[in-house]
Structures are given as structure tokens and as C-alpha cells.
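Journal club prep — side note

Before the paper discussion, L.F. wants everyone to see what a predicted structure for a comparable chain looks like in C-alpha cell form. Sequence:
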Amino acid sequence: MKKTKPPTWADVKISLDRIDRGGLIGVIRDLYQAGDSNRRFLHARFASAAPVLEEYRRLVRAAVFPDPFSQRPIRLREGTRTIAEYKRATGDLAGTVDLMLEFVEAGTDQAADLGYGEEAYFGTLERKMKDIVKALDALPEADRRAAAARVVKLGEYQGTIGWGYGDFLGDVAAQLQDRER
């Protein structure tokens, strides 16, 4: 039995090149109607930014810190995928940093409010915080200052969350404050 190779982007592109404008809009409409993630992606790419970013914030927070009474599991990977989807759809670095901060803030709130945490959980939050700090210099001044203020506020958890995570937040906040001076 001969194996057939799966279709690739090149195969799809060849077909798309043959479609007229109306047909291409029809394909995009079908994708829009096919699922929530497609709809979010298209809204992020083509619609007004503020409501779209707010929806992504809501999704990130719900994945990282679901309502404790909902019995929904914590889904850090889903939160990370949501951030990546937004970045891919928009290329908006300020919005991406905002979502990464939402991720860390939600996880930190959960650890402080519910006493939740484990090594892998805090490791994920720390990696996200390191990504935020790396991205700060590439942001426009106003966005950088707003993001830095949120990082510094997270530093207030120093000494209140275990596993060394609270101390990590305090250290990052202190380094950032020194850098801003």
C-alpha cells in the first residue's frame, strides 16, 4: 500500500491562488463560522483592537485562574496558546505583553488567594515574567511604563507566596525599579 503525504501549506496556497476575490471571502467566511478560535483570530486581525484585547484577557484569566466554584481545571497551556494566537493574529507587542501580564497576575492572584501552587506552576509564571521583562525595551514609552508599573505591583507579593516565587517577584520588581531610575 502506497502512503500518501498529508497536504501542506503549499498545496493550500496553490488552490487559493486560483480563487477569485468573492471565493476567497467565502472561504474566510466559512472559517469564521467554523469555530471560536478562527472567529477570535479574524477579529484580532481585522476588527477594533480594544474589545478584541479584552476578550483575549478574559480567556487568559479564565484559563489561568478559573472560578474556584466552577470545578474547571487550571489550563496554563491554553492561556499560553491564547497569547500566542493573539500575537500571531495582530503582531501587537504591547497587547501581547498585556496578555502575558494578565497571565502572571491571574496566576499570582490564584496562588495568593487560594494558596495554590506547585513547582511547575510557579516555573511557568516565572518564565512568563522573564519574557515580559525581555519585551519591555521594545515597547513604546507609555506602554513600557504601564507594563513596568504592573510588574512592580506584582513585587508586592514578596514574602506572601511560597516556593520562592514571591521572592522572585520582589527581585524582578526591584531590578526593574533600579533600571527605571
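L.F.'s comment for the group: Residues 74 and 142 are 32 Å apart (CA to CA). Keep this in mind when we get to the figures.
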